[in-house]
């Protein structure tokens, strides 16, 4: 990327980088670190034409999260999301394409929350 003078890095953060629920302190701290690293590297590498951003989804309904996102647990999570549902993988596609495409050439150091309003409502 440096040799080409252009590049895009998309880190994976989380809504827990800005808000937390009981029992997720370590995970939230790690994700906050990723968002902070995103900002720091954006500043360090901007002169090289490298943009560094992060995508921060809320809970995403995937097979690996099926048990977590069920019953009362799902109800508690959805109650915190203003749009009234958890994300599905397709919800992340547009944001990822934006961050990877020339449309975001003037965006760097940003954590993009794809969270149905979770952080705004926290």
What does this protein look like?
- The chain is α/β, with parallel strands linked by helices.
- It is 34% helix and 15% strand.
- It has a domain at 7-58 and 92-113: 3-Layer(aba) Sandwich (Rossmann fold), CATH 3.40.50.720.
- The protein has helices spanning 25-45, 71-79, 90-100, and strands at residues 7-12, 50-57, 111-114.
- It has a three-stranded parallel β-sheet with strand order 1-2-3, sandwiched between helices.
- The radius of gyration is 16 Å and the shape is elongated.
Order of helices and strands: EHEHHE
* CATH level 1 class label of the domain at 7-58 and 92-113: Alpha Beta
Major sheet: size, sense and barrel closure? Answer: 3 strands, parallel
Assign the CATH superfamily of the domain at 7-58 and 92-113. Answer: NAD(P)-binding Rossmann-like Domain
Compute the average pLDDT: 95
- Overall geometry: elongated
Strand order across the largest sheet: 1-2-3
Amino-to-carboxy terminus distance: 37 Å
> Which runs of at least 5 residues are low in confidence (pLDDT < 50)?
none
SS elements, strand count: 3
Helix segment tally: 3
CATH topology of the domain at 7-58 and 92-113: Rossmann fold
| Portion in beta strands | 5-15%
Q: Name the CATH architecture of the domain at 7-58 and 92-113.
A: 3-Layer(aba) Sandwich
Structural class: alpha/beta
Helical amount: 25-40%
Topology:
Elements: E1 7-12, H1 25-45, E2 50-57, H2 71-79, H3 90-100, E3 111-114
Parallel strand pairs: 1-2, 2-3
């Amino acid at each position: 990327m440096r040799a080409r003078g252009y590049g895009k890095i998309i880190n994976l953060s989380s809504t827990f980088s800005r808000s937390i629920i009981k029992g997720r302190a370590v995970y939230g701290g790690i994700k906050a670190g990723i968002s902070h690293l995103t900002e720091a590297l954006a500043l360090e590498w901007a002169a090289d034409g490298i943009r560094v951003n992060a995508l921060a989804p809320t809970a995403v309904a995937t097979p690996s999260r099926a048990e977590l996102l069920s019953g009362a647990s799902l109800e508690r999570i959805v109650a915190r999301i203003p749009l009234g549902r958890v994300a599905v993988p397709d919800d992340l596609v547009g944001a990822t394409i934006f961050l990877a495409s020339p449309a975001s050439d003037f965006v760097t150091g940003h954590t993009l929350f794809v969270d149905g309003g979770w952080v705004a409502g926290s």
